[in-house]
Amino acid sequence: MDSPQKPRICISVCEPTVAALQRAITAAAHVCDLIEVRLDCLDPAELKAGTGLITKFLQSVSGEFILTFRPSREGGQRELDDEKRQSFWSDAIFSNSLFDVELDLAEKFNSSETSTALPIDWRRTICSHHDFRGVPSKLDQIYDHMAATPARILKIALMANDAIDCLPVFKLLERAREEGREMIAIAMGTAGIATRILGPSRGGYLTYASLETESATAPGQIAAQELREVYRFETIDRQTTIFGLMGFPILHSVSPDMHNAALAAAGTNAVYIPFEVQDASAFLKRMIHPRTRELVWPMRGLSVTAPHKFAVMDGLDWIDSAARQIGAVNTIVVQHDALHGYNTDAAGFIYPLLAVCGDLRGARCAVIGAGGSASAALYSLREAGAAAAIFSRNVREAEKLGQRFGVASLALEDACFEGFDVVVNATPAGTLGRFVNETPATAFQLRGARLAYDLVYNPTETRFLREAREAGGETLGGLAMLVTQAKEQFKLWTGEASQEKVMYEAAARRLSVR
Ligand code: NDP
């Protein structure tokens, strides 16, 4: 049975006063299909005095509601003993609502030994279970218990600590679909984002979203507007091709903005999803590789970011020569039943530089840093015929990289870049956050260098670039590389190469709002 309805977005509102709750409901009603009213968030006095007011108010607002009165052990805002919970539902007189009742209470109401019958309609009841620690070991048994109650809809929300934890959630949705049950299954946390975006397309009754990014009521919730505008949530179905990003952390990434904008502009039924992955090998094996994955889904490719660019290489069937020489893969293509690895950082690095400098043959280039992006830069500079040298605070790593590419490695401390045509910052120094005020080289060190190229793109204006301008040099920021490497990935996945402008605008938009 395919989900017959259009995918639904439910916004959860959690406020301490009736007045604030009414304001939040009014705001949410414009941007979602259902509103979950978290009555456990109300101050006890407000709840006691305000029940009648809320009932009237809900009847005056068009739309469907889910009423929730959650104890803290299931993610609620306060301690609620069974008596309080039971009497809450006994007094509830809300009419245009679904009722979310936790499994333990639903079982009590359903028990033949209990005299208290559920005072609300089972046909409007969601039987729920929440686990904020991880994936419960007896997930299928929990499902069985829920399915044994007369509740119409089953709901399981668990905490994902790794994107691999989305797998049991997708399996539950599959089971419910096969058994003709209505089900909400969510993996909470950043690692569970895929279930929030894809759940309804795989049979889920709804997905939860927040009104604003800051007002999320559960970890990992995405704002409703972002679900619609970035992920085109309402267009996702079982045929939608899936691309994604694997990394840890991933929330800072601009890639979902760039790739989803490009997929939309190309008119493709496809979506790009962030996967917060800790165990790269298990993720590739159980969720991605067509020969071993435990999920039937149209997964076609991945971007790979830190810290997995090296680790993923072991799980691939074929790696392109440039990626092998660089020693890192940042793009995976699902090619029939195999995984192919590429590195588009090299192309991403060199094309913007060539656009500024023209011919690089014989150019003197200094690469600061000895990590993955330095390796990609050295590879492309060698291909372009430039003469490069590495400068690093980690001399041993620099020597290793220097030997691999046959270039000199020097200590960064007290380095002087006079006479260099290009000085590349391939370190995180200057990145938004705790490194933002750092620079790998000062104006004094950069005097006499022609162009400073910062691979850091967030912020777009870094201290390294300011120091270079103070020294009288030209500058190039990392945004052009970011967009170019993404464009090359898009080309590998879709064969299309024309979405650069759309990607640039999406990246710039996201970076300017952060
Ligand atoms: P890695 O972690 O692989 O390497 C970082 C290198 O920088 C290491 O050699 C590290 O040395 C050195 N380093 C770290 N901090 C400093 C510092 N304060 N001063 C001097 N050296 C330092 O990272 P990547 O190579 O993958 O990425 C580096 C930067 O490039 C990141 O900011 C990343 O965002 C950016 N990047 C941008 C891309 C784009 O498209 N614009 C694409 C890829 C990367 P040590 O071992 O001593 O820590």
What layout of secondary structure does this protein have?
Elements: E1 9-13, H1 18-29, E2 34-38, H2 44-60, E3 64-68, H3 82-91, E4 97-102, H4 103-110, E5 125-131, H5 139-148, E6 153-159, H6 166-179, E7 182-188, H7 193-198, E8 207-209, H8 224-229, E9 241-247, H9 255-265, E10 270-276, H10 280-288, E11 299-304, E12 318-319, H11 321-326, E13 331-335, E14 338-342, H12 345-357, E15 364-368, H13 372-383, E16 387-392, H14 395-405, E17 408-411, E18 422-425, H15 443-446, E19 451-454, H16 463-470, E20 474-476, H17 479-494, H18 500-513
Parallel strand pairs: 1-2, 1-8, 2-3, 3-4, 4-5, 5-6, 6-7, 9-10, 9-11, 12-14, 15-16, 15-18, 16-17, 18-19, 19-20
Antiparallel strand pairs: 11-13, 13-14
Give, in spatial order, the strands making up the sheet with the most strands.
Answer: 7-6-5-4-3-2-1-8
Query: What is the terminal separation in angstroms?
Result: 42 Å
Count the strands? 20
Rounded radius of gyration (Å)? 27 Å
Report the helical percentage. 25-40%
Multimerization status = single chain
- The portion of residues forming beta strands comes to 15-25%
General description of the model:
The chain has 514 residues and is an alpha/beta fold. It has helices at residues 18-29, 44-60, 82-91, 103-110, 139-148, 166-179, 193-198, 224-229, 255-265, 280-288, 321-326, 345-357, 372-383, 395-405, 443-446, 463-470, 479-494, 500-513, and strands at residues 9-13, 34-38, 64-68, 97-102, 125-131, 153-159, 182-188, 207-209, 241-247, 270-276, 299-304, 318-319, 331-335, 338-342, 364-368, 387-392, 408-411, 422-425, 451-454, 474-476. The strands form three sheets. It has an eight-stranded parallel beta sheet with strand order 7-6-5-4-3-2-1-8. Helix 1 links the parallel strand 1 and strand 2. The chain is elongated. It starts with 8 loop residues before the first strand and ends with a helix. Bound molecules: NADPH dihydro-nicotinamide-adenine-dinucleotide phosphate. NADPH dihydro-nicotinamide-adenine-dinucleotide phosphate binds at residues 306, 345, 348, 369-374, 392-394, 397, 412, 426-429, 431, 438, 440, 455-457, 478, 481-482, 485.
